[in-house]
Amino acid sequence: MTEKNDPRHTVVVGCLVRNDENQVLLIRHRKRGWEIPQGRVEESENLVDAVRREVAEEAGVEVEIGPLAAVWSMVSPGSALIFAFLGRYLRGELNPTDDSEAAAWVDEKQALEMVASPVMRERLALLLRHDGSVSYRSYSLKPYQLHLERDLLAWPEALQ
Q1: Closest to 111 in 3D by CA, of 21, 22, 19, 25
Q2: Shortest CA distance to 151 belongs to which of 139, 138, 134?
Q3: Average pLDDT over every residue of 94-116
Q4: CB atoms within 10 A of CB 30
């Protein structure tokens, strides 16, 4: 039996994938609409393998995973840690599977217009303006509310 105070977090990975034309890969989720490829990390799976698998499952393409760009902590309802990476398209034709309804390469402006969910749009906007730092955001849903924003690389200086 699980104790009420035992921590339980869902671990999620996502990736902002760009192709050689600097277009962004979006997938259309059945419930959330257009977003970057993302999904849950499976048991005994590392984050990099999980994000490669998620992109392949949702869009049908292979990617090279680059740097970790952001970490989100959803604190309610439920708890989730979302690790977002930058990636580069390697090969394959867009071929959505059971995990997504559609996949498309779009320019940045069009991507921001297509993503309707406030959470997903904020996530996309942050990744599009990535400056080499690792951003951290803590938020809750219903309604969407941002609680904390930090640059993880600059955090030690902020505490001094």
Answers
A1: 25
A2: 134
A3: 93
A4: 9
Domain boundaries, the chain: 10-151
Residue 100: partners with Cβ closer than 8 Å, 6 or more residues away: 27, 28, 29, 30, 37, 58, 59
Mean pLDDT of the 141-155 span: 82
List CB contacts of 34: < 8 A, sequence separation 6 or more. Answer: 26, 27, 28, 111, 114, 115, 116, 120
At 48 the three-state DSSP class reads helix
CA nearest 75: which of 120, 31, 124, 10?
10
Q: Evaluate if pTM is beyond 0.85.
A: yes
85-89, 131-135, 148-152: least confidently modelled range: 148-152
CATH topology of domain 10-151: Nucleoside Triphosphate Pyrophosphohydrolase (3.90.79)
Residue written as tokens 């970057």?
36
Structure tokens of 48? 């990099």
Report the alpha-carbon distance of residue 13 to residue 15 in Å, rounded: 7
